[in-house]
Here is the input.
Amino acid sequence: MDLVLSDAETRILGTLIEKSVTTPDYYPMTLNALTNGCNQKSNRDPVVDFTEETVVRGLDSLRQKKLISTVSEAGSRVPKYKQGFGGFFHLSDDQVAVMCVLMLRGPQTAGEINGRCGRLHTFGSREQAEETVDSLVERGYPLAVKLPRQAGRKERRYAHLLSGGVAIEESDMEPPLEAATLHVREQDDRQAELAEEVRQLRDELDDLKAQFATFRRQFD
Here is the structure.
């Protein structure tokens, strides 16, 4: 499947997904409401300032890709828009929620995804959120990727692949270890192995001593 979204298309689609769950009374969305949703300052990274013309162009492209549709409701004087993201990619509700926060807030760790999905889907634990995002990474047509570990961070981040490959800044990657550090760690590992071998030999010697003492007592 050859489908790549622009940053604007990703923001528009993510906003439609989010609002379909969090504000169902105002969904499908008008152009004005959708533009405001794309430009809101909370729960967005980066914050953008789209014009209605930018959103219209994005909607036209998304419609051609069969990811959104236009609806005309009785009594409404303006068209409204709804998304069909989950059905298009055959995703479960928890998978759609994870993709939504990745689309709206950029790369995140499993812990961050778990905390930010609350209004869209409630995971029982961080581990459950990680299982869901891993399912998006491992599917036949991957929708997400696990990024290299950042320097100074324990958890690796995930990013969506709807806009193609993810550019990794060199400064974001964990720096390689120096040769001296690798050598020291190899020595430490070897010393630990030797210490374990010595402990095992001592245990075996103590066991032999005990057996010999038992044997001698038979002749006392």
